[in-house]
Design goal:
Helix content is about 45%, strand content about 10%. By secondary structure, the protein is of the alpha/beta class. It has a single domain, classed as NAD(P)-binding Rossmann-like Domain (Rossmann fold, 3-Layer(aba) Sandwich), CATH 3.40.50.720. Helix 1 links the parallel strand 1 and strand 2. Helix 3 runs parallel beside helix 4, helix 4 runs parallel beside helix 5 and helix 4 crosses helix 10. The two termini are about 30 Å apart.
Length: about 300
C-alpha cells in the first residue's frame, strides 16, 4: 500500500458504474464525487429525494460532465430496498459502496420491525447486496465495499438478541451493528471464494471524520449539550474528504484483498492503511450464523452462494 495515498491516486473509472448508499452528505457524498471525477457513472442511493437531487447537482457543479443520478433508497424499509434493486437501470454494477448508516440513535424500529441501527446499518445493506449480486458477479473486477467503524470494538453481536430488545444501549447497539458489517464482509468473502467468484468483498472505516453522523442522534432527541459535545468532537476530527479515502482506496486501488479492512493509518486519522479489527469479526461460525439469520429476517438469499 502506497504511503500517502490520496484521491489523486484513484485509477481511471471510465466505463464503470458505481452505486453509493447515503451519498447525499459526508463521506458518501465525497466518495460519489471522487468516483465521478474519475469517470464513473455514479448512482446516488439516498432516502431523501430533495437532498439526493441537491447532492447530484453539487457533484455536477464540482465535476464538469459528471454522470450522476439520484435513485430513492430507504434502508429502513425492505420494500424500498427491493424497489431500488428492481428499478435499477444499469446493465452492470462494478462497485457497490454500502456507506449509509446511523449512529447512537434512541431506540426505534424500522418499517419491518428491526432495531434501527441493526436494521439500517446491517440488514438493509445485506438485502441490497443480495438483490444486486447477479449484476455484481456478472461484472468482471467488481467490488462490494462496506463501511464499518473502529467502534465495532464496542460490542460483539448477540445472536440471542440481534434487535437489542433486552437491554438497549445506543452505543453498544451501534458497535454491534458495525461488527455485523465486518462479519458480513468476512462471510461474503468466504462464500465468494468457495464459489470461485472474482467479486471482491472488502470493508473500510473513516476513523474520526467530521460529518453530521455524530450529532444526528442528539439532535433527534433535542439533547443540546450532547450535540455541542459532538460538535466539539468534529473540531478534532479530520475532514470528510480525508475520512472518505479508506473507502475510495478499498473501492478502487489495485490489489485490494477480499475481507480486508482499510482505515486511517493512525487509527483515527491519516492516509489509508490496514486497520485493526476485533478477532470476533473473523469468526467463521458467527459469520455463518449471522448470515442465516439475516436471510431469514430479510427474506433475501444469495443465488449461487
Amino acid at each position: 500500500m502506497t504511503q500517502g495515498w490520496s484521491a489523486r491516486d484513484i485509477p481511471d473509472q471510465s466505463g464503470r458504474t458505481a452505486v453509493v448508499t447515503g451519498a447525499n452528505s459526508g463521506i458518501g457524498l465525497i466518495t460519489a464525487r471522487e468516483l465521478a471525477r474519475c469517470g464513473a457513472r455514479v448512482l446516488l442511493a439516498c432516502r431523501d429525494e430533495r437532498r439526493g437531487e441537491e447532492a447530484a447537482a453539487r457533484i455536477r457543479y464540482a465535476v464538469r460532465g459528471a454522470d450522476v443520478e439520484f435513485a430513492p433508497l430507504d434502508l429502513a424499509d425492505l420494500s424500498s430496498v427491493r424497489a431500488f434493486a428492481k428499478g435499477l437501470r444499469a446493465d452492470r454494477i462494478d462497485l457497490l459502496v454500502n456507506n449509509a448508516g446511523v449512529m447512537a440513535l434512541p431506540y426505534g424500529r424500522t418499517a419491518d420491525g428491526f432495531e434501527t441501527q441493526f436494521g439500517v446499518n446491517h440488514l438493509g445493506h445485506f438485502a441490497l447486496t443480495g438483490l444486486l449480486l447477479p449484476k455484481l458477479t456478472a461484472t468482471g473486477g467488481a467490488r462490494v465495499v462496506t463501511v464499518s467503524s473502529a467502534l465495532h470494538a464496542l460490542g460483539n453481536i448477540d445472536m440471542g438478541d440481534l434487535n437489542s430488545e433486552r437491554n438497549y444501549r445506543r452505543w453498544t447497539a451501534y458497535g454491534r451493528s458495525k461488527t455485523a458489517n465486518l462479519l458480513f464482509v468476512h462471510e461474503l468473502a468466504r462464500r465468494l471464494a468457495a464459489a470461485g467468484s472474482g467479486l471482491v468483498a472488502a470493508a473500510a472505516h473513516p476513523g474520526l471524520a467530521a460529518t453530521n453522523l455524530h450529532t444526528a442522534g442528539a439532535r433527534l432527541e433535542g439533547r443540546r449539550v450532547v450535540e455541542r459535545v459532538m460538535d466539539l468532537t468534529n473540531l478534532l476530527a479530520q475532514p470528510a474528504s480525508a475520512g472518505a479515502l479508506p473507502t475510495l482506496y478499498a473501492a478502487t486501488a489495485p490489489g485490494v484483498r477480499p475481507d480486508s479492512f482499510t482505515g486511517p493509518r493512525l487509527g483515527w486519522r491519516g492516509a489509508p492503511g490496514p486497520s485493526w479489527r476485533a478477532g470476533w469479526t473473523r469468526d467463521d461460525v458467527a459469520g455463518e450464523r449471522l448470515w442465516v439469520a439475516s436471510e431469514q429476517l430479510t427474506g433475501v438469499t444469495y443465488p449461487g452462494l
